[in-house]
From TrEMBL:
UniProtKB keywords: Hydrolase, Pyridine nucleotide biosynthesis, Pyridoxal phosphate
Family indicated by similarity: Belongs to the kynureninase family.
Assembly with partners or alone: Homodimer.
Classification lineage: Bacteria, Bacillati, Actinomycetota, Actinomycetes, Kitasatosporales
Binding site for pyridoxal 5'-phosphate: 134-135, 163-166, 232, 235, 257, 287, 313
Source superkingdom: Bacteria
The EC number(s) this enzyme carries: 3.7.1.3
Protein name per Swiss-Prot or TrEMBL: Kynureninase
Pfam family, one: KYNU_C
Family matches, as InterPro entries: Kynureninase (IPR010111), PyrdxlP-dep_Trfase (IPR015424), PyrdxlP-dep_Trfase_major (IPR015421), PyrdxlP-dep_Trfase_small (IPR015422)
Length: 462
């Protein structure tokens, strides 16, 4: 099975096609679908014209030949970034050199950029610090959480459907602390937590299915049992309201290269609830989190507040690229982003229902709005090959083994025309696949995934 769409969305430039098969040009919305004007394309044009968040697309580098639906893995490049990075390199580094740590604000960038992310995840200033990878921040959060837990705790819970890195790091952290790890489905955490549970590490949105877990409910249930709630926001931050302060979340981490568009490998962030900050003992107490870093004291005295989440020298180029990327959020509310995200994913599901031949795909993303993140995941036979073909035809999503097609919707730049075009091309690819299967021996051909209940997804979207 080909895996070129699995890790990075595409291993060749998007829409570039293969030497044997050039990329098909993208049809404009409203184009003919083979039997006259497609009514969904006309509807997409109306929805795009009505906005909101239509203008923010122009602030990204995107090409009109490609439908980019992989912002849940790597966000598109904001136009504000290249110029800013050129200035950081030529002037701040090239001319000011070491002076930039103070004069260009490099030293304080982790907290400053944290304060820029804070409103997007529902946190007040001083509660988010940026630096290191998500994996490293998971380690800080889990060990820091365990150190704050009650003496009698014997275990931590980990989301049984977690993105793998969370599970790996949590198991290692628990082993160091002499605690057991119990994988539990997010929906079961409220029933499974006990007074011996130190904390639970849970993904806000499931990377594979796009399911949105109940952050307020799970956090409250953990607190009732005396446990801490540690959330991984990689697939929700920048796509929907999180409400960290409002829901009393204890610790949270997330990456910035998906819906925050910070760029490949841009630094992650750590949130520490204000009332826990003075008790937070980092397992990675580097000199950047010392109360007096330039005192060069051999003994460690932690800084106050969120500075405790820092470790070593920040990755300035990536951090300042992220800061420039976040300018797009000036004047944009996360509530309007969520409204558009749900409208886009609803519309995409409707179009897939309309265009996909019956029984070839089934949505594993919940249809109820309260359980849906900002991606649609469709189970499909031969998903790897289907995604390869979609990418060849200019529709870039990705594929997760064994059979999931993922389509991520970034409301800041994804249009309804993108959603319609992607569904149309998917329909084409699936119809060709079905025709090939029919032509082959019906007994040995790939069997179609039976639809759950008729259409791709059912329900009332509430
Ligand atoms: C939920 C989740 N957690 C963590 C990560 C990865 O973290 P890192 O940036 O350390 O690779 C990802 C994606 O790569 C993810 O989807
Ligand atoms: N972080 C990634 C990377 O460095 C390379 C390719 C993909 C990624 C991803 O972010 C994968 C993503 N977290 C996922 O949901 O599968």
């Amino acid at each position: 099975m080909s895996e070129s769409s699995e890790n990075t969305g595409a291993q060749r430039p998007e829409g570039a096609g293969s030497p044997e098969r050039p990329a098909a040009p993208r049809q404009p919305a409203g184009a003919s679908g083979g039997s006259g004007l497609r009514k969904e394309a006309a509807r997409a044009a109306e929805l795009d014209a009505a906005g909101p968040l239509t203008a923010t697309r122009d602030r990204f580098v995107l090409d009109e030949d490609t439908v980019y639906l992989d912002g849940n893995s790597l966000g598109a490049l904001p136009r504000s970034v290249p110029g800013r990075i050129a200035d950081v390199i030529t002037r701040e580094w090239g001319e000011l050199r070491i002076r930039s740590w103070t004069e260009s604000g490099w030293w304080t960038a982790p907290e400053r950029v944290g304060d820029r992310i804070a409103p997007i995840v529902g946190a007040a200033p001083g509660r988010v610090v940026v630096g290191d990878s998500t994996s490293v921040n998971i380690f800080k959060a889990v060990v820091g959480g365990i150190r704050m837990a009650g003496k009698g705790c014997t275990e931590i819970l980990v989301d049984a459907t977690t993105f793998p890195t969370d599970g790996y790091i949590a198991r290692s952290a628990a082993r160091m602390a002499g605690l057991a790890v119990r994988p539990v489905e997010p929906a079961r955490i409220a029933d499974e937590v006990t007074e011996r549970t130190a904390l639970a590490l849970v993904n806000h949105v499931d990377y594979r299915t796009g399911e949105l877990n109940d952050l307020p409910g799970i956090t409250a249930a953990l607190h009732s049992a005396g446990a801490l709630a540690v959330w991984d926001l990689c697939h929700s931050a920048g796509a929907l309201p999180v409400g960290l302060d409002a829901h009393g979340v204890d610790l949270a981490v997330g990456c910035t290269y998906k819906y925050l568009n910070g760029g490949p490998g841009s630094p992650a962030y750590l949130y520490i609830r204000e009332s826990l900050q003075e008790r937070f003992e980092s397992p990675l107490p580097g000199w950047n989190s010392h109360a007096d870093p330039f005192g060069m004291d051999p003994g460690y005295t932690p800084a106050g507040g969120i500075l405790r989440g820092r470790v070593g020298t920040p990755d300035i180029l990536s951090l300042l690229a992220l800061e420039a990327a976040l300018e797009i959020w000036d004047g944009v509310s996360i509530e309007e982003v969520r409204t558009k995200s749900l409208a886009l994913t609803d519309f995409f599901l409707e179009c897939v229902n309309e265009y996909a031949p019956p029984g070839r795909v089934r949505s594993v993303t919940p249809y109820e709005h309260r359980r849906r993140g900002s991606q649609v995941s469709l189970e499909s036979v031969g998903a790897g090959e289907v995604m390869e073909e979609l990418i060849r035809r200019g529709v870039v999503g990705d594929f997760r083994r064994p059979d999931v097609l993922r389509f991520g919707f970034t409301p800041l730049y994804t249009t309804f025309a993108d959603a319609e075009r992607a569904a149309w091309v998917l329909g084409e690819v699936l119809r060709e696949q079905a025709d090939r299967d029919t032509a082959a021996d019906a007994g040995t051909a790939t069997a179609a995934v039976p639809p759950a209940e008729g259409p791709v997804a059912g329900g009332d979207g509430g």
